[in-house]
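Continuing the batch. This is chain 6 of the set; chains 1 through 5 are on the previous pages. Same settings as before, nothing changed between runs. Recording input and output for traceability.
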Amino acid sequence: MEERRMLSHLKCTDIARNLRIEELIQVPSVETPARIRITTDKLLGIPYAFNPAGDGPWSQYDNRPIFNLEAVDCLTFVETVMAVVSARNVFEFEKCIRAIRYGDSVPEFTNRYHFIATDWIPNNIRNHRLIDVTAELARVHNRYRSLAIEVHG
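Output for chain 6:
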């Protein structure tokens, strides 16, 4: 049923977009870091655009396509790479995009993780799509220095 719903709204541009996703997904069976590198390399050169994707044709507020391979912003680039690396076909890709971007995987403006620091990152950590390595990196890369400032009156 889910696949039928996704296919029911396809137009020629959607089919072309889906074929491009299928092409991106067809990466050799390698470890995740290598898949990320291969996928990222294939997507480099896509033009930057402000707010390039919507919530899909069924959305009440923003019915532009849920993904866009003609233009990306920083976040949609990362979401696209994450979904391509996680998916085996276009249906799984769209499910991944939904899980990465929306609460309860329901593509709607009111469910979207709009704020990266307070919505997107914590929810993707909670859903095991990201790992918080902040503390680990801070121990390795930070050096502490104390300074004294003297104020002369």
